[in-house]
## 1
Amino acid sequence: MEQNLEEIKALLKKYNQEHLLNSYDLLDNNKKRELLNQIKTIDFELISHLYDTTKQKKQNCSDEITPMEYLDKYKLGDKYKYYENIGKEAIKEGKLAAVTMAGGQGTRLGYNGPKGTYDIGLDSHKSLFELLCDELKEQGKKYGVTIPWFIMTSRENNKQTLEFFEKNKFFGYQKDKNIFFFIQGELPMIDTEGKILIGEDGLIKMAADGHGGIYESLVKTGMVEKMKQLGIEWVFIGGVDNCLVKMVDPVLMGVAIDKSVTVACKSVVKANPHEKVGVFCKRNGRPNVIEYSEITDEMAEAKDKDGELLYGESHILCNLFSVEAIERMGSEPLPYHIAYKKAKYIDKNGDLVVPDSPNAYKFEAFLFDAFGEVDDMAVLRVKREEEFAPVKNADDVGVDCPKTARELYKKFYNI
Ligand code: UTP
């Protein structure tokens, strides 16, 4: 360990991060080893580059933004059955798997635990995980298959998530046979001076690298390989916090297969032109999602000849990918976005600091930044009341909260 330590000291000196070893001598041997291993895996060049980006002014967007074509699931006419039959065949042949992204911190909800374990207040008191699993089992029964379920956790919530599933006997699924857990990547958090933070445990304060980390972690953790072994060709990737998510949709699959695209996404039409959601678009001719803050009022309100919003298709994190697309996306780095957050840390005197306002940068990749990789992509508009009931905020916010999700869920299932 000693030789190791000297090399690490030199590395830290080079990147002006020597404070990371301030409390090293106070750690037990296991923690010492863990800290050194953490330091060895950090890409300090990347961190110093990311710190520089926090200082740069946001550039005005000079990209060419144009509308993205979409299909409306309920205006397909005869084609509905046609696509549905194609999708049904593929599902029956066991070609579909579901991935649930459950690595987020759920800060807005303010619940102390993995969001998937949250009870939205139904009479059954089922957790989000169980509601999602119910739907998977129901659909699997319909097509005579068990849809393999892959769950992405973060290092922060992996243990609690696994314990929850164990306690609930994996809701009838079988671990490592048809339900698989994998941990997403993470990056250190830094302060406004570019210094990497040390957390309460004496180790580097890491944070999950955003839902865009999904591709790389599916590849790196061997999940893509597993999918191939299971004969899977299509993967639905969705969030854990949408209790109406429909992960098994033969029409979406039929569209993807028939149109020979490698990614097919669901959208719901914006509730109003200024709803604060990201919408599908083409950026410099490539598929993308544009944030509400990036488009002008004029663009937000623009309509086509049928009176539909030109930029009205909201991205709801309901996307179907071919396994091959995931593999490709997982080998290309995505840009990181900066989030300014509150983070407890140990200061240079060894004291715990609990900030009451944001003090640290967290870096996140967004899943839709990989869409530009795709030559062609299909967007299928679905009905909000059938497929989108997210749990993002606490009830006092009044939108996208447990209360609204519960009401939408009850209405859809007529319970
Ligand atoms: P959100 O962007 O809504 O984040 O994630 P969040 O963590 O749930 O909530 P806030 O922003 O802290 O309040 C959308 C989906 O992506 C997953 C989340 O678990 C959720 O299902 N996600 C997000 C990850 O799996 N990992 C991440 O690093 C970020």
## 2
Amino acid sequence: MKKYLLPTLTAAVLTACAPTAKTPTASSTPPATIPEAATQPVAPSWQEQAEAFLKDYSAQYQRLYAQSSEAEWRSNTRIVAGDTANSGATARANERMAAFTGSAQNIQRLRELLEHKQELTELQVKQLQTALYNAANSPQTIADVVKRRIKAETQQTEKLYGFDYKYQGKSVTTNDLDELLRKENNPLKRQQIWEASKAIGPTLKEGLLNLRDLRNQTVQALGYPDYFTYQASDYGMSREEMMTLVRRINEELRPLYRELHTYARYELAKKYGVKQVPDYLPASWLPNRWGQDWSAMVEVKGLNIDPVLAKKGAEWQVKQAERFYQSLGFQALPPVFWEKSSLYPLPKDATYKKNNHASAWHMDLNQDVRSLMSVEGNTEWYETTHHELGHIYYYLTYTNPEVPPLLRQGANRGYHEAMGSLMGLAATQKPFLAGLGLIDPKAKTDETQTLLKEALNYAVFIPFASGVMSEWENSFYADKLPQDQLNARWWALAKQYQGIVPPTTRGENYLDPATKTHINDDPAQYYDYALSYVILFQLHDHIAKKILKQDPHATNYYGSKEVGQFLADIMRPGSSKDWRAVLKEKTGEDLSARAMVEYFQPLMTYLKQQNKGRKYTM
Ligand code: X8Z
Ligand code: ZN
């Protein structure tokens, strides 16, 4: 999903059209003298005042949001080296947005209205709080800092997605590198591929350090100590509470990870013909640039859909994902999605580049929904396509008259990430694939290997997301990690949480964390994905057992309107309902890794048996 630097107005614009100028404050400041014989107008109640403010505010917010999205879209889909037209237009649109959402008058009015919380409706309070939260991302009391930050973010995006990756002297895409890392068996070549994928790091260092300061300074103006704390507060949590939560999740998955880690070290050493099994996994051995997904290590006979996906092609995958959502009762994607999305890789001879990481956009907080992807026919993109459509259907479902524009968001950010990943999991289970005709339904398949492959995807992700990424960003933003320790800290965390080490020493001349796009353009939020996996297993457990009455390991959601209802009910209120209450109400549970741990429990016996006599190093 895409997150924006949010907005505000210049003083001139404010007086002309800001909602505050039109909102009477008669009840709090009565005129000193009341003209005789004048009929005393009834002062509007706080509820009426909030309503008037929010009506105006939301209309302007939505308009500026759409302009910002449109500019950002262009900046992310057409990256031309040396071009300044797009970045200039994007910076201006974002500055207008910032000038509005962070305006001193808006902030003052929001605070004033929130002082009368007791007299307002819950929906009003939630909107006002959201607007105040948004304001902290661009307070105009420090307009210059905000302006510099907007510029720096635009420049960082250009550097990040304009980078020309080279392998063996030729330009390659990140899709090419990912494919090579999944397939190459020669460890020396693997190391070169991995190193090629990290070459971008140093080019991002100066920009990232600058952004850290600007991001911290921005939110400090409204009283948040640092940018990490600011992002955690979106969940109604302190930084410490968030770190405690992600550490707990990591610990709950740790016994499984320890088995997977031991298993992978021995299996990969065998595969690459290395006699001495290493204590820690060389990063270049793994089929993913950051070691966040090892599922390509295992091929389950009878369940490998890569060949059929390659044959059917990229377009089919997007259409198929849509059909799956439709089968649950969601509507067809609107024409604008097909007309304006950027779904496939650019042609080889394109004179420009585009953002190479998948995202979904709610352009106008209304019906204009688009996705930016580089879909190819393979399992990874098959899942990612389902993931992105999850965002799109979330957007479309909470875009309804009951949900005001300011609350058109996930119950929390993790929910937004969970929906599509859940559908991605469902779309790879055997009964589903058989129903779709993607595999031979009569083929005998090994359930343990299937579960192992899933664990190498979902369980392996947790130490990366809740460990390495979250801890690093917490250090970076909140603890002001010194700039000569950025890479050292990254690899210390990778060793501690993932049991992964770099193939050769990686000094501070590299910046390996910056090769992860989120570090640059989705800052201090990566725990969203860890939480999303935890949530998705909770939802899946409920759907399988309570709705479908199927084994969670072998479900087929296809065509179940009841499953669609269940998901749509979670999506429909957006962020107008408390996220904890939603989970409790829909699953009967609080947020917990219980379902995820239980799902993989049958694998533990197998792994322990496989790992018998092997040396454990974590
Ligand atoms: O970044 C994403 C999505 C963004 S909408 C494609 N994901 C994480 C990642 O790629 O690192 C999905 C799961 C993990
Ligand atoms: Zn996403």
